[in-house]
Structure formats: structure tokens, C-alpha cells
Amino acid sequence: MKESPFIHLFHIGKRFFFYDVNRNSIEEIPEYVYQYLSSGALDCIQEKEKAEEYVRHLQAAGFLKSSRPQVSEHPVTEYYNAFVNNNVGQLTLQVTQKCNLDCEYCVYSENYHNRHHADKWMTFETARKAIDYLVSHSADAEMLSLGFYGGEPLLAFDLIKECTLYAEKVFEGRRFLLNFTTNGTLLTEDKVDFLVEHGFTMMISLDGPEQVQNRHRKFANSEVGSFKLLMTNIENIKKRYPVFFKENISFNTVIDPQYPITEICDFALHNETVRDSSFMSSIVNDTYADKKVEDSPEFTQEYAYEKFKVFLMMTGRLDKGRISPIMRDHFSRIKQIATMFERYPREELPYKGHRGGPCIPGVRKLFVTVDGKFYTCERVSEDSQAGYIGDIDQGVDIEKALSILNIEKISSKRCRNCWAYSFCGLCIAQADDGEKMADCKLCRECGDCRAGIESSLMDYVILRELGYNPDII
Amino acid sequence: MERIMIYPYNKAYEPYVWYERLLGNREITALVTPNGSGLVGRKVCSGRKELTVSNDYEAQLEQCDGVWFVNDEKFELSEEAVEEKIHRAMDLGKKILCTRTSLPDSGRIADSIPPALHLLPRETERETGRLEADYCYPVDTPVLVVYGTECGTDKLAVQLALREALIDIGYRVTSISSRMDGRLYGMHPFPEYMLGPGCSEGDKIRQYNHYVKRIELAERPEIMIVGVPGGVLPYDRVDHNEYGILAYEMSFAVPCDAAVMCMSYSDGFDGDYSAFAQDMERIFRYHTVGCHIAAAVPDMQTVLDNRKRHLVSLDREFVEAKVKQYGKPDVFHVVNKQGARDCAQLIVDTLSK
Fold it and tell me: How far apart are CA A128 and CA A156, in angstroms?
């Protein structure tokens, strides 16, 4: 039986489009062609003939092919060894599992089951081996990045210091970055002096104004919020090291969609200390959460308005200074889509291939736990075997890594027929059922994932028409 | 034999180790690299011996007669630190061979080296001679052009391999390298004025032609191998390969009789490079007779990140097996003896027609 064209039809108001999976491009079509492609039938015979003629033209131009990949295999599979031996560029050390805060949506909290706070600490010996591993497997990497992760990494500051001095010695001759994510409550002057001296980049978790920050980010075993102490520390850094503050510090905001967003946006836009800083923001991650996070009606409404303002900015219609820093880079997926369209042109999907989604495990964001185990990244569960890919003594378990890289194999029939094949973002974290990669777990995410991609495609189409240029904005 | 150490050793110098036999009365005995290179402990085979990459400059210095200070792209070494190493080598009476172009004041270093020690002249200074005529001379010797679809596709290795193979067949071969540091290997360097703003684009074409003509007249070769630096055509807006301007200028300066394309390995490639070869014929009049598949593959994630392509090294055995699998008589992995011989024979057959 002849397969149908591998396309996805969508419309924005009264305008009609199809995304051609083989060509990886979006084309606008008249409504009658849209109707014809979606149902194959039109009431009016003349319109049907017109639609058939239109379709023939599209086919002659190389669109509407029905080809699907026939074999699921990630292209890197056949030379994965080369990547893991030569191209490791990023390594994150979990220096401790302990934290001085107890944030509700933290992946370590009791509401999540991918890891738990514990009084566990990495030894220097483990860290040293991990750093050596990074260097010896990085010959082709453009630069090295060593990250410190927790718990709260600053609780293990002595270890961070030791690692820094060691890394600077063994990274000799390479461009490298030292970085960590922190809740910022332990940024005392002596620590900051060291971080400045060694050129760290820092991402500080800051959710918004006092009532928002303190809603979730409270000190452990207490109801006291972290806002006051955090802001004092931040202000001190800005006062003592203004250039470092501007260039090396950014903020991470986790947005809880159960609450309004405007107050968060306004805080970042107007607060004197942080208003000129870069923010990364994300909605609460519920991948390993016990329960799904539902959006409140206020949030939905306010979020849509903020998004509208960002789109005005992206098309040059509103000054960047009027957009909350929290939202400026929030729609980076649209930029990714623009990049995908521009830099991955193709005539047809390959016979053998793999959907989007997985990073190259052990290469892209290698995560080392306190006891020296390798995980694909800091987002996967340490309580599950699914994301475990080796350790500092044995190196990467190639077989395990390849099975994660080729995650499509657990759902290949569905994936090969899914129009979101190229844009899919689902990886091991979404497929982890607590023990292994499981399709039954993964398939629950497919609907949301496709809906998100469709929404981004629509946004992209409109923005492109209105002059959006991902390189400039 | 003079024992030479390469510092700071990096992958761009691997071909010089493989073809060490072309070094004449010198041999490479040590490869020293910065701690962070990721190469420490790796083995590099010269054909005569296996060298282990070291990070111990002092220890290796004692064992050698001279140090070849080379360029590097990936490292971020302070030039002062390199200069310190040069002086350390001089203090121990070692010969200094310097093709490193980024030293802050190489003139000062040159002045400070006693005449008894040998400083390799800055490769390019010799080649900035004035223009004799405002037109190009005909080049009568058959010219083999070696070009790459991007940087990192083994162009230097292919030039060295083909030169050796053609000499083995019995030809008198002259090479004008795609790089500026090939003189030690008997190659003429790529002239620096081609890369700078010092002369007009027209003058560059004429000057390069005169450079090649002078070499032709002086050496009377039977085949000339000309290497084209960098990549020859833009991939896209971001990976522009300098728009192929250099290749375009060189194609006017030196007409090509046959060309070998160097490309990275890529998924889905089946050995048919004709589409690219046709573009090359049309744009540069490069008649491509063979294709070398380099042991390198692009990391496509970097493309998605909206950055430039970067290549990751592959095992040579992997690429050799792929080339075998393609089963095409004009697709090679030239960096093995058989591949070089087969490619050289194909070139000779083409040029003989």
C-alpha cells in the first residue's frame, strides 16, 4: 500500500500550511489544498481538480514525499567510540548531595524520585580522576567546561577550590570554563574573591520577588525563605565586582505555573540589582515528579501576554528594555527551529536515521556523581539504572551508552511515522520508568511534545513573516 | 641524524610525523604538548617508530638536538610561555626551528639566537618579492591541485602522500603547500601575502602565479602539487569557508590539470562525490579525478547550536573499511600506502591522456 505524504497540516487562523518532514520545510497552501490533503475529498469537483493539480505541482517540486526512515539507528552509533574518546567537552561534578535549602520543586526534594538530598560528598580523589578523564577524552573538543553541581555546591567549597587549582594545571593550553549553579546563599566575600580570581561563571537561582522566592526556596528544616540573604549576597558582589557581576553571573528562574507570572517578570525588569543581568527561565520540571504541574488560569493569561511582548521584541516592534529579562531567552526553541530549517536542508529523510532528542551520552554533558558514577546528564535519575553509563574507573559503558543514544529503538515504529521526527526533544529522562527505558513511559510524553512543537512551528511561521531574524534578536 | 622535538605538538602536525621520512637528515624523536591537549600518552606512528606524546618539555629537551616550535589553533598558550621555552632550549644549546607565526616579536627572538644555532627563516618572508609583470605567466608543468571541502580533511597528509607516491613512480615532483610551514619537508610554503590585506586581489593572483612560475623554472619538475588552504566552497551562511575566495584566486593564478578532493566522512555518503566535483569544475575549473575520505566526521550538534562545524577524529581503520565498502576506483583513504599508490597511479593515468 502506498504510504501517505509525510507531512503535518496546520493552520493559523485562515491561513493554511504543511510541514514537509522529508524536505524539513514549511509551505503555505490554499484552503482547498489543505482540505484535500487532510481528507482527500472535496465537495466541489472543480476544486478537487484544482487541488489535484496543485498537489502535482508540489510533488514535481519535491514535496509531499512519503519516505520514512526504514532503519532506526543514530548516525553517531557507528563511530560513537571516536566521540567518546575525543570529543568530551563538558563534565559536571556532583560535589555533594547535601543542600542548605529545601526547595519543593528541586529534583532532590521529596516530591521527586530521581534523587534525594543526602550527607554524601565527593572526595578529591574522585574529582581528580574525573577531571583527568575529561582531559584525556577531549582532544577534539572545542573547549573544556567543568561544572560543579550539588546539592548546593558551595557547601563543598574546599573541594571546589582544590579542583579548580588542579584543573587549571591540567587544562594548560586549553580554553576552559569553570562554572556552577548555586542558590547563592553561601556566597560570602572570601568565596567570591576566589571565584572572581579564577574567572568562574555562575548561575544563581532566583525565582522572583521575596514572596515568590520564599514560596519554594526555604532553608532546610525551616520555614525561612532565602530571598533576603540571597539578595544581600548578590548586592555585595555587584558592589565589589561590578564587571564580574555583569559578565560572569546569570540567573536561573524556575517558574511555577500555578501562580501568576507578571510579578516575576516585573521584578526582573525593575529590580535595580538584577535588571541588567541575563536570565534563563523554565517552567517547573515535572519529569520525575510525583504529580503533574497544572497551569493556573492567571498564569495562562499572563504568560500569553508576556509571550506576545517577546514576539514584538523578536520582530523589532518593542524595545528589548521593555521585556522582562526572564522572558527574553525563554523562546529559544524558536531560534532552534529557525536554525534547523536553515542549516539542515534536505531532499528526503535518510533510509537509516534517528529522531531528534537524545544528546550523545557520555559526550555532551557527562555527569559524575559523588561516588564517581557516570550519568548522561544531571537531569536523569540517579535512583534508576536507566541513565547510568559507567564510572570513573571503567569509563563509559559503550553498550549502555549506545542503547541510550538509540532510544528510538524502543518506539521506532511510532517515531518513524511521527511528523515531529526531526524536532522531537524526548530523551532518556522522559523514558525512565525508574529502572529502565520504557516505551509505555515515553509514549505518555509524545502528545505534549508534539503539541509544543506544533505551537513553536506556528510561532516561527508568524515571526518569520514579521521579519524575525534569529541572528539579530 | 638530528633529533627534533615538536612543541606544542597538536593534531595538525600529525602528518609531519607520519611522513617523517621526508625530513632528510632529521628525525622527530619527541612530541611535547600542553597538559590540557588531551593528547598526552597517545601514540603516533612515523613509519619508522612509534612516538608517545608527552607533556614533559624538560625531560624531552635533554634527549633532542633541536626543537621545532609550531603553530597551534586549538590551544591558548601564552606566547611569553612559548618564548620562555625557546630560550630554555637555547640555553641548552639546542637548535631552534621556528614556524610559529604568533610569537609577539619573533624578530627579537631571532636576534637573540646566536648564529651558531639555526633558526628556520620565517617561511613567508622570502616570498614577498615584487611583481615582475602585471599578467600571469603560463605554467607548463602539469599541476595537481589538492583541495578540501573544509578545514581538517587531511590536505597536508594527502599532499605529502601523493608527493611520495609520485616520486616512487619515478616523477620529479615539486610541492607548493597549503600551509606555511612545509619547508622542512621540501615543500614550498603557501605565501603569506595571499592571506593578508597587503596587496590587491588582482596582485595576489599575479604574484602567486609568478611565485609558482619561479619555482617551475628553478626546479623543472614533471608534476607540481599545489595545495589550497582551508575549505573551497561555503556550506552555508555560517560555515562560509571564506567563500572560496582563495581557491578562486588560485584557480586564476595556476590552471589545474587534475585535482584531488579531500572531504570528511559523512553519514549516508556512498562514494559518489560527482555533484561537488561538478561545482568545482564549473567554478574553479578543477578537474577532480579522485576523492580522499579523511578520518574525521562533523559533530552535527555544533551545527544545531548555530556554530561552525567542527570535526571529530575517527579511527583510520574505520574509514579504510568504509572506502573499501564504497568500492569506487576513485575514492581513497590516501593516508595509507596502498591508497596513496592507487591515487597517484590514477593521477598519472589522467595526466597522461
Answer: 15
How many residues comprise chain A? 473
Alpha-carbon distance of A105 to A297, in angstroms, equals: 20
Q: Is the pLDDT of residue A396 over 70?
A: yes
For residue A101, the 8-state DSSP code is B
pLDDT of residue B124: 45
Q: Residue B74: CB partners within 8 Å, gap ≥ 6? A: A142, A174, B10, B37
Partner-chain contact B36 A176, CB within 8 Å: yes
Q: What are A356's three cell numbers?
A: 531528534
Radius of gyration of chain B (CA): 20
Q: Which amino acid is at A135?
A: V
Nine cell digits for residue A424 = 522531537
Q: How far is A136 from chain B (nearest CA, A)?
A: 4
Q: Peptide bond preceding A151: is omega within 30 degrees of 0, i.e. cis?
A: yes
CB-CB under 8 Å, B76 with A175: yes
Which of A42-51, A113-122, B187-196, B206-215 has the highest average model confidence (pLDDT)? B206-215
Nearest neighbour of A172 by CB, restricted to B11, B36, B315: B36
CA atoms of B103 and B101, how far apart (whole Å)? 6
Span A242-255, pLDDT tens digits: 999 999 999 999 99
How many A/B residue pairs have CB atoms within 8 Å? Answer: 104
CB contact under 8 A, B36 and A86: no
- Distance separating alpha carbons of residues B230 and B303, to the nearest angstrom: 18
A171:B315 CB<8 A: no
Report chain A residues whose CB lies below 8 A from the CB of B13.
none
Measured CA distances, A28 to A8, A14, A32 (Å): 12, 11, 12
Is-contact A322 A309, C-beta < 8 A? yes
Asked if the model's pLDDT at residue B123 lies above 50, the reply is: no
Paired with B18 in beta bridges are none
High-pLDDT (> 90) share of chain B, %? 72
Please report the domains of chain B, with CATH numbers, ordered by start residue: 2-122 (3.40.50.720), 143-352 (3.40.50.300)
Strand partners, A92: A147, A367
Instruction: Please state, for a pLDDT cut of 70, what percent of chain A lies above it.
Output: 95
Give the A-side interface with B, CB within 8 Å: 75, 78-79, 81-83, 86-87, 135-142, 144, 169-176, 335-336, 339-340, 342-344, 350-352, 359-360, 364, 470
Q: Supply the DSSP symbol for A410.
A: G
Helices vs strands, H then E, count in chain A: 17, 15
Give the whole-angstrom CA distance, residue A300 versus residue A438: 32
Mutation target vs A (from B102, B265, B297, B320; most A CBs, 10 A cutoff): B297
Backbone dihedral angles phi then psi of residue A250, each to the nearest 5 degrees:
-130, 170
Which of A189, A114, A136 shows the shortest CA–CA distance to A429? A114
Distance of CA B182 to the CA centre of its chain: 7
pLDDT value, residue A384: 87
Q: Cβ separation of B38 and A138 shorter than 8 Å?
A: yes
> What confidence score (pLDDT) does residue A115 get?
58
AA identity, residue B86: I
- The domains located in chain A, with CATH, are 7-67 (no CATH), 79-343 (3.20.20.70)
Cβ pair A97, A146 in contact under 8 A:
no
Q: Does B56 touch chain A (CB under 8 A)?
A: no
